[in-house]
Design goal:
Helices cover 77% and strands 0% of the residues. The protein is mainly α.
Length: 102
């Protein structure tokens, strides 16, 4: 049995009502929250979410096979040069530019 026009109309009305409510909350929050308060709220949220994010990143690294300590920029440049890439060639930038011109 398919979905009726009436059922779709009810669902659409509900979605529109929820969007209107969310817009109201956003507008209300924007007027009440100072930049300093917003910054403090975002920092507190980041501190609260930090452990969960670290677990997620660690899991993603394991799935991708990433291990070991981060490489310093100077060491990364040496590794790239050891692979035969010359920074003055700008191979990646050139490819991006060529794609934009297509």
């Amino acid at each position: 049995m398919g979905v009726t026009i009436e059922a779709l109309a009810r669902r659409l009305a509900q979605v529109e009502q929820e969007v209107t409510h969310l817009k109201h909350l956003i507008e209300q929050g924007a007027h009440e929250e100072t930049p300093a308060a917003r910054g403090a709220r975002l920092l507190a949220q980041a501190r609260h979410d930090k452990a969960q994010l670290q677990v997620g990143v660690a899991k993603a690294f394991v799935e991708m096979g990433v291990h070991g300590a981060p490489v310093l920029p100077a060491q990364l440049r040496q590794m790239i040069a050891a692979c035969g890439m010359q920074p003055e060639e700008n191979v990646c930038s050139r490819g991006i530019i060529e794609m934009r011109e297509e």
